[in-house]
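Extended Data, panel c. Modelled sequence:
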Amino acid sequence: MATLAQPAGPFALGTFSAPGGGPFPGLLSEGRVLDLSRALDRTPSGLRAVLERWEETLPVLRDLADDDSLDWRPLDGLHVHAPLEPRQIFQSGANYRQHVIDLEVAHRSADDPRTVEEARAEIAAIMDRRAAEDLPYVFIGLPSTIAGPYDDVVLPSWARKPDWELELAAVIAKPAYRVSVEEALEYVAGYTIANDLTDRATVFRRDMPAIGTDWLRCKNAPGFTPLGPWIVPAESVADLGDLRVTLKLNGETMQDESTKDMLFGVARLVSYISQTSRLLPGDLVLTGSPAGNGIHWGRLLRDGDVMEGSITGLGVQRTRCVEETR
């Protein structure tokens, strides 16, 4: 088990289990965990049930975190699962300016007449126009990709170029449909860490290029979205627009960027998604990944690699890559 970094704020939420026991929704505070299935007046089946009544439950959680008389358990010794099982996962692509520029340069065809500098300048202008015209790029992921923050990541035998993409994930608190940018953050309960793994070799359909991207194939293998370790309430995240997103591969820093580089912040993404789809409590909105993916470094994931992902105030996840047994 990785060293369990404490989150920002007085408490966070997670899903835990003791040896030999089943998972339970828990309140984490000062290195100890309270079983919410016992502490709340009602018995929640999981964290999603807590989120479904977020506005009335949040003040109760604040009081519970300050109550030393309750039946707290030490975090040490508990297994940490993915904090929740979402019904829907909305993923934002091409949302970090520098990342998109790097990918464009990396995917240039051999006969592209542009210099590297010309290619970077051209895609930078496109990114700035997208931001000005309010055109996020969002697609759908499968809940079956969710894995725990310390679980092994199985690399499928067919995935020839598996890559990492560490991301800030917003957790929805209440149904949101056609909400404005100004009110969008009122629908966010908190934030967690997601590593949105991608097989670069299957991103584009080679049999029919006009179809474009194949998100099912490249992103939706079981366990391809390690999540957590915790959900930190939005009120405890000091500066959403300047969080440090850092991924280390075998101890070497590969991604290290501020959320300031995002073209579309959380409010704009939530509002944009809600114009088409109804967001539900516990849904995830992944906000895109910064520069420094494996395709940029020319170094993709392989058996035995260890990824350590952190975001300011949200803790640390640590996952080991394991080749699929053929």
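The mean pLDDT is 93. This feature is highlighted in the accompanying rendering.
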